Fold these 2 entries.
Entry 1:
Amino acid sequence: MESVKVPGKNNKHKVLMYALSTCAWCKLTKQFLRDNSVEYEYMDVDLCSEKDREKVKRDILNRGGEPSYPTLIIDDKVLISGFRKDKIREALEI
Amino acid sequence: MITLERVRQRAESDAKTNGCYLNPDQDFLNDLFEGLKKNEERYGYPSCPCRLASGRFELDRDIICPCDYRDPDVAQYGCCYCALYVRKDVFEGKTLIQTIPERRPKEKQDRAYGIIGESPLEKAPETVAVVAVKSSGIMMKMWYCKQCGYVCFREDPPYICPICKAKREMFAELTMHTVS
């Protein structure tokens, strides 16, 4: 499973994002993280292999979420579904 | 090859026909059009840019834009799942767009996982009976609108009749019997 790392000055938290390459909400979320110089990793699930899609789904389900995009996982603990600025800000302290 | 302009025209015309509006945020709208274009090039049909598609037409049928869930979502939440289509008050800026819950049933969402790579149907099915058998275990049925008589062949009845706008409750299953 390959994820893309986007560097940023704000690297206090580990941010993983499951996204779709075609999704406008995912694009907004990526932009929001970049605008706030947040370091993050993302994976475009629609471009993943069948096996990796299944892994992503299981990972989201195991963390109590529903497989929808974008899904953010912060510090392996907090799961945020959808582009929720307020929740992202709170979790990342920005 | 499908152009961005064609995607836009199609959406504009559909919004007009169905009494909804396009998202007033032009940059966001363009991103959605790009996504639809990409999906159409990739799969051969414009599946929802914000949902994971399986790549198989019969499994993605309900999320081809405008998706089956658009009309009830626009009516209830003010926008569809990806927010391409919005309600009048949202278009006019009186109501804000928010992330809305997924109306698509879970068992249909699951179809996008673990089936890519399977070969698509080799030949166009010739009869209705063949479609029913070959659609990966999906039960296709005939439905008719009790108000206007519109008939369709699909898994579930539409939320809203595309002809007379009657609600889903007005649809009944059509069964055929051979009388001997």
Note: Chain A has one domain: 4-92.
Entry 2:
Amino acid sequence: MNLAAMVGMPGEALRVPRSEWRAALTDAVRAAFAYHYEKNAFYRAQCGDLSPADVTDYEDLQRIPLLPVGMFKQAGSHVLLTAGLADIDTEIRSTGTGGVPSVARRDALTTTRASIGILGGYRDFFGISKGAGMFLCPSTAEVPEMGMVKVFNLMTAMLDDHRYLVRDYAFDAEEALAYLRRWEGEMTRHIIGPPFIVARFMRFLELESIPLHLDPESMIIMLGGWKQYTGRSISREEFNAKAERYLGVERSRIRDMYGMIESNMLAIECEHYRKHVPPWCYVSIRDITDPAIELAPGKTGGIAILDALNTSYPGFLLSDDVGEVDESDCPCGRTGQTVRFRRRRQGAELGCCAVSIEKYLDSHEIVAECDLAAAPGR
Amino acid sequence: MPRFSPQVIDHFTNPRNCGRLPSPDVAAFVGNPVCGDQILLTAHVHDGVITDIAFEAFGCSASLAVASIVTERLRGSPLSDAAVLDQEQVAAWAGGLSPDQRHVAALGADVARRLAENHRDGITDDAPVAAG
């Protein structure tokens, strides 16, 4: 199976025998390494004595030099590019609590591959081809470069109708409820958004004592992380219980995803709550104190991603996230790796699109409350 | 029209006046709180003329290029030129910006005007920009 087949048919690629997956992934990552090694002088300089000829087996993938993801925030990040700026098609960004944006630039080939691959992943994991999507996030028109929203937006291709319910950094739960009622009996209703806004909506239903029962095939699909900008975490178990109680969506249809804007790796959760690494990526867990050391599956460490489909810059990244990888067979029938995010690396800012949205939602609500308090006659 | 003008490609790939001047006479910072684009200008001013100027910028390619372009254009100019800089002029210097890049022209003009205002008012902005 070559890279084009992995990207075009990720469902099939995730179900090949493990030996075949390893061989195909090794070929694809090695080819990507050779591509950037040849065309990117900055990256080649990071490689020292290692050349593409030294990467022959699956076990060699860990030798490929990694770029710390923090480099995408630095002023001189243009040196990361293998493609010239004239070839750059999209710029995607994420802003965390620190305020400095991380900007990932993708050329046309990378954008095409990533779009097709992610859409194929959605089809394989969710099986959605119709229905209505209530997106609890801003629209791409409002935040055209926000990575999380771009990834969500691809889902609209599978739906018959959709609405974005965060506008001008405000979320109106009553409007969301009105849309769900409008679609009732006409289309299968899905809820898509970062966990904290879905949780806000469920809190609204709880406080107003409005239990809903969505449709038998309804799904809740999320991305953006479970930690809030305040540092509090949302409990997945409590979330699932509330979703069953207030939305009538069974647990196996509540799905989370994990990714980062600098990578084309979007790990999608199956019905067994394991997030599957897409077939064009290899996740390597690194020793926190010495990232040169790869840890065995099951050990907790820094999450590194080797992404074979990126031609804009070397997609071999050491992230600020900590977690584990699992290479055991999943009951869902997919092979390859699954990844579990645990936390951010100590000292790393809490950084993602969802955190940014939440921070601004809250700041606007505080401003609105202050306006009300200061209004004459109050 | 290509997504990036030749001027933007040139300044993004080969940024001029990048960094922060030591002991500047004036510093100005402008940031977009939503998208996160940020530009910090530091300058030396003598007899109302910008004798040296440097930038630190974070954000999209166009914003980095515009920051470089603005410093190149303002170096050696009277501070009064910075005080009246508008986004149309910045967009023209950048060789044209696509609709989704227009906010960058505003950012470039805003930070130049702020530099002039800060110098007039004796203010030096703190520099919240810091690479992650």
Note: The CA atoms of residues 300 and 324 of chain A lie 5 Å apart.
